[in-house]
Amino acid sequence: MSCSPSPLSSKALLTEPSYSASLSQDGQYALISNKDGIFFWDVNQPQARYHWIQGSRNNDVIATDISPNNQYAITLSNDSVALWHTTDGTALGWWSLPVTAQCVAVANNGQFLVGLADGSVMALNPQHQVLIKFLGHNEKVNSVAISADGSLALTADNAAKVLLWRTDSAQIQQQWQLQSRALNVTMSTDSRLLFMSDSTGNAWIRDSQSGNIISELKITTRQMNFSSARFIQNNTRLLTGTPARELQLWQTATGKKIASWQVSLPDKPLPQSAVVYSVSQWQGNSVQSLSSTSLLERWQIPEQR
């Protein structure tokens, strides 16, 4: 087995492991949570820009997201969701949730989705104070994605169902039945491409308008699951992360793997592995990963032969 290439750089954003983390679409910002709270970073600066606390208890933020235009940050605990403005760090709202929350996504206008354990999805537009409760799923919602303009939602559940629907009307546009629990979905910034993966190591890229498969990822490992995914380089490539330290780059058109890396572990004896929470493009021909060890790392994409 060949050794993984070393990162171009590695920076610990926190000294302790993190519960959740997100990179912005352009890789400029990072949102990371641990037992001490929520930290918002400009990745080029030596210190976090903001330190937020959600709720009165010890911090338990389990999911985060940054809008594609970098204007909004969203943080989710098991029972509440908070929306933040990234330009001045102010809290724009805090909402209590009726059942256990699972996942969250935020759009350029501050509109957001929360996937819940009872199978419902809350779609809230804070600007217009409009709340839609989407009931298209019957089982726990594992992953949600929202289009940059907030108009489309992509949601995945434990019953292996993936739905594409309109957030203003809750009308379903497309639906797919995967082979096992649907664990991860993402949407390209222009909403044209959809990524979806299941718990038995299958993953597909689809066209959002026709619903057709563009490619199936050529996965050689058994039971590969994905903890993060993002379309990069004008949608020609897909960058993914796994719960087992892996970072991979795929060709969108063919599903062929171009490169793979292993994220680093800290010098301390624990933990022995790391979840890749978020991935993004970086400057030039490089990419970034942010993992549960709180390490932000940059990797060089190898030249294509």
What Rg is obtained from the alpha carbons, in whole angstroms? 18 Å
Distance between the termini: 21 Å
The helicity comes to under 10%
Q: How many strands in all?
A: 28
- Give the DSSP E fraction (strand runs of 2 or more residues): over 45%
Q: Number of helical runs?
A: 0
Structural class: mainly beta
Order of helices and strands: EEEEEEEEEEEEEEEEEEEEEEEEEEEE
Largest sheet: 4 strands, antiparallel
Q: Indicate the overall shape.
A: globular
**Average pLDDT score:** 94
Q: Numbering strands along the chain, what is their spatial order in the largest sheet?
A: 1-28-27-26
Low-confidence stretches: none
Relevant terms:
mainly beta; 4-stranded antiparallel sheet; 0% helix; single chain; 305 residues
Could you explain how this protein is built, in words?
By secondary structure, the protein is mainly β. Helices cover 0% and strands 50% of the residues. It is built from no helices and 28 strands. The chain has strands at 9-12, 20-23, 29-34, 37-42, 50-52, 63-66, 72-76, 80-85, 91-96, 101-106, 112-116, 121-125, 130-134, 141-146, 152-157, 161-166, 172-177, 182-187, 193-198, 203-207, 213-216, 228-232, 237-241, 246-251, 257-262, 276-282, 286-291, 295-300. The strands form 7 sheets. It has a 4-stranded antiparallel beta sheet, with no helix packed on it. It has a 4-stranded antiparallel beta sheet with strand order 2-3-4-5, with no helix packed on it. It has a 4-stranded antiparallel beta sheet with strand order 6-7-8-9, with no helix packed on it. A hairpin with a 3-residue loop joins strand 27 and strand 28. The mean pLDDT is 94.
